[in-house]
Structures are given as structure tokens and as C-alpha cells.
Amino acid sequence: MNVKTLENLWTAFVAGERDFTGISLVGADLNHWSLARVDFWGADFSGANLAQANFRRANLKEAQFKNAILAGADLRWADLREASLTEADLSDARLEGALYNAQTCFPQGFSPEQARMWQLAPGAALATKDLRDRDLGGTDLSGADLSGTLLVNSQLFGAVFRNANLLSALLGDSDLRYADLRRATLMLADLHGANLRRADLTQANLIGANLRGCDLSETNLNGALYSDTTQFSRGFEVPDTLYHLAPGASLWGADLSGARLTGVDLSGANLAGANLMHADLWGACLANADLSGANLLGTNLLGTDLSGANLSQTNLMQAIIDLPGDMAAMVSFNGQPA
Amino acid sequence: MDDSPFRRIVLPALLAAGAGFAGLTWPLASDHAARLSERLPDPLGRWADSAMITYQHKEFSIRYIGFAILSSVAIGIGTAEAMRSHQGRVQRRQGLLDQVLAEADQDRPLADASSLDTLPAPGAEPPQPHRLGGVETDAALDWASLLRVPSVSDSLETETEGGGLLAIPIDQHSLYHLEGGGQNCCLALAVEGEYYSYYRRRPNLDRARSLVQHLQRRGQQAIATWDDSGYIVWVYRPSAARHATPWPALAASN
């Protein structure tokens, strides 16, 4: 690393350049430099002096920090996925909200949880976190809890959100092309202006979601759930492969397994033969609904209004239930313990 | 024409000089100039007066026109100098950036220099397309052809000209999900039976090219595709012990 390269880096930085993907800054002295939000994807900082440097929200994915001095550096909300921090000096470095994954290498004895870093992995707990303006394309977040998460203007091309909980998540203007959103809960989520072209939303829960201004061309919406409160773009014709959840709806034989249907009003609906296995119907209204022959195996029925519901031949095995006395008698009559 | 010195330097200078001359000689031609000259403070007002009353101050008027000509020439030269300086700054900035990135590349040893594709010689035959799932694409490693594509629109044009497919639109590829093998699920592209997983989206050709070259130097095989919003870079992933699920036939679903 010669001084001239550093001078040129500084000149380009001052001139407004922010993309330094793959740059080699081996042994560079960047002590106290302010490099917030700069893209250093795959950069090599081996042996560099980065003490007190500001890397806030910087993209440091796959960056190399072997023997780098990061003492007192500000790495808050930086993307450190697949970065190699082995043998780096992280003393007094601020890492709150920095992203990491299983491939990120930390110095021995370092605990990312104690440093309050956020792990991006399947099943991760990222509720209400700020992940806006990030390049998270191709990331596997299947089954993750992203309820209320801020993902506005994020790059989510090809990301995997299968079975993820995106309840009330803010995904406006994000790039979700080719994203896998199968069985994802997008209930009350704001997707205004998001690009969902060729995304897979099979059996996704879109109840109350805002899809105005979304590009839904060639989007797979088979078996997705929507309600009267779901807002589609003007002129969008809802395909009949979607399930319309409303009082009195005809959902005969519908596959609603694993769906989060908390508080949904399905009173008087025809759910005969429907598959509601492991669905969450907490606080839902199923009064006078026809559930004959429906599969409610492992379904959460706490607080569900089942008054007047037809439960003949309904499978309630392992269902979480708080039926009143008379209903409990009916379950017992069916010979299926709750 | 857009980047020519005439458009960037000479034309603005001529326009500025013309505007300057017109402004300075306006009092000679305007009826309202006399009223305006009365309001001007001395000696400017007297000067303007004498310039307008040509029969009384013929010599002075000629001198004034000479002054106007010289001033407009000075304005023109000044504008040209300013434009040239600005242009120089822009070029210097671009040069510095190129140098930074070039030096960064030089700092790393090449993992496998022979694997790098080179720009084909002018007039060389375009690469022969390969078959991919019934769709014609140009190669498993189509970077050589991608280098020849200056932009998305150009590549589209080349495609329609029938000169061989260059950068391939993503829609024409076979997409899969790779799962298992103890790794995270990822979106992958199948090219001649090999899988390339999604790596990164790049906004333009230069960025995509830099990234592919960077990956190749690290010993990773990479390809790039384009779509309507930029370029997608994919890296080779051995598919051993991983299950590939085809991306659903989306077009048929709606």
C-alpha cells in the first residue's frame, strides 16, 4: 500500500465516489477516517490501521481485516457478513447493529451477541430492526422474525423469506424480484412501490397488506391470502387462485396450513375439508363457520370464537384450545382429545 | 458531438461573448436607453449618453464600440478558460478513480491469470452460442462476450441484429433454489448442468466487469447476466450434496 494510492482514494472519495468494491488497502493508515456508508465489499484491510475510523453503515461484506487495528472504530450497522476479523484488534470498537452471519470470522473469544450485533440467518430474530437501504440480495432469512422490521429501499433480489414473519414490516420501494416469499406472513406489511416481479408468494398472507404501486408482473400468487383490507395497485385484477378471507367466504378444501390468521373474521365461512394444520387462529372469529372434516391439527385456537361452528369430523388433535364446556363435550364426543 | 471540445468549450464561449456584446451595445439601439442613461450615476451616465448621441460624439461612439468588442472577446476567453478548467477537473477525477481501482487490482496476485477472459480482437468472430435448456446462450463463462457489450440497450440491439447473443437476459436462464448440504438456501442459475448462485447486483457494466474480474482473481468462476435494472453477477457453486428445486413456472401461474 503506497501513499499515492491512499491520496488517490481520498481524492476519489472527496469527489463523491462511494463504491470501492474489492479495493486493496493492505497496511493503509486510515486512522480517524470517516468512511460511513462507503461500499468496501470484498476489500482487503489486512494490517491496516483503522483505529477510531467511522465505518457506520458501511458495506464491509467479505472484507479482510487480518491483523487490522479497529480499536475504537465505529462499525455500527455495518455489514460484516462473511468478513474475516480474525486477529483483528476490536478493542473498544462499537458494533451495535452490525450484521454478521455464520461465515463471519471473529477473533477468538469475541461474542457478537454481547456486542449486540445482528445475525442474518434462517430463523433469526430481527423484529423491529432497521435494515433499510441494505444490499441483502440472496440472503436466506427463511423462518426469521422480521415483524415490524424496516426494510425500505432495500436490495432483496432473490432473498429467501420462506415462512418468515413479516407482519407490519415496511418494505416500500424494495427490490424483491425473484424473492422467495412462500408462506410468508405479510399481514399489514407496507410494500408500496416494491418490485415483486417474478417473486414467489405462494400461500403468502397478504391480509391488510399495502401492495399499491407494486410490480406484480409474473408474480406467483397461488394460494395467497388476502382480505378486503388488502390494497392492490389500481387496475390489478386479483387472480382467482388467491383465497379471499372474509365473513361467509367459500374456502372449501383450502390449504391454510401454518397460516397466521390472528384476529381474522371468518364467521359463517365454509371451511369444510380445509387444511388449517398448525395455523394460528388466535382471536379469530369462526362463529357459525363450517369446519366439518377440516384438519386443525396443532392449530392455535386460543381466544377463537367457535360459537355455532360445525366441528363434525374435525381433526382437533394437539390443537391449543380453550373451548367452553358445551363445545368441549362435542370434542369429547368426536373422540379427539384436545 | 456530445463530448467534443466545440460543444463543451467553444460554443459556451461564443454564446457568452455574443451575449456580452449585445448587452454592451444595447444602449445604441434602444429607445428606452436615453431614459435609463439619465438615471445612471456619473461618469457612467455621461459615458452612455455620449455613446448614444452619435452625431455629437462620433469619436467616442467608435471608441465605445471598440470597448464593447474587446469586452466581449474577454468574456468569451474567460468563459472558455472556465469551461476548460472544469472539463480538466472532471477528467482528472475520473483518472484518479481509475488509477485507484487499477492500483487496488495490482496489489493482489492473480489467482489464475490464464482464466481471465480477454477482449476479442476487432473483427473477430463472435462467440458461438451454446444451448441451455432449449434456450440459446453464449457460454457457461460468458464474460468474454459481455466485455463486448457497451450497455444494456446496445446488447439488445446486437441480439436483434443476429450477431450472436452477448450478455444474456436473466429471463432466459433456468433458475433454481439450491438447498441442503448444511448451507443456506440460495437462488441459483443453471448453465450447462452447473449451478451459479446469486452473488450481487451491479448497476452498470463497468461495475459488473470489475466484480467478475475481482472474483476470478480470487479463483472464483463468475458469470453475469443483465436485466432491465442492471447486471447480476453469479458465482459457481459446486452442487454436490445440494438439492436443486426449479423456480416455479411463474408465467403460467397468473
From TrEMBL, chain A:
What is the top-level taxon of the source organism?
Bacteria
Q: Which InterPro entries match?
A: 5peptide_repeat (IPR001646), Pentapeptide-BTB/POZ_domain (IPR051082)
Q: Which PANTHER family match?
A: BTB_POZ DOMAIN-CONTAINING PROTEIN KCTD9 (PTHR14136)
Q: What protein name applies here?
A: Low-complexity protein
| The species this protein was found in | Shackletoniella antarctica
